[in-house]
Amino acid sequence: MNAREERGLIIAATCRLDRLNDGTxxxxxxxxxxxxxxxxxNLETKSCTCLDHxxxxxxxxxxxxxKRKFGARVASKNEIAxxxxxxxxxxxxNLSCLxxxxxxxxxxxxxxxxxxxxxxQDGERAVLRFAPPATH
Length: 136
Description:
Distance between the termini: 55 Å
Strand content: 5-15%
């Protein structure tokens, strides 16, 4: 693994990547500290709008980041499975972003307290139900 691939892995693990309607991905710049600079990556054509790719012709860290997150293509063979696979990848990506932000901001998730199971007439216990926390 070269240095660009390693930096791409870091971007993939720590940054949010957005998919545009044309199928390209917006990958944030690591060097821009304000967080508003992004590069457009096309996984199909293996291109990026960053100077490393445009001027140097190198496969850049932004491409590696997008490829790591979403792969160069879907593996499914039929159209419905392809759509499901892409949606699954997007959901996984969004969950990883949510967890990352939760950890970054120090948010502690609160879950409802479980109730005691009720006895049924046949002696079996009922399914556990969760109640929302009481508001005071």
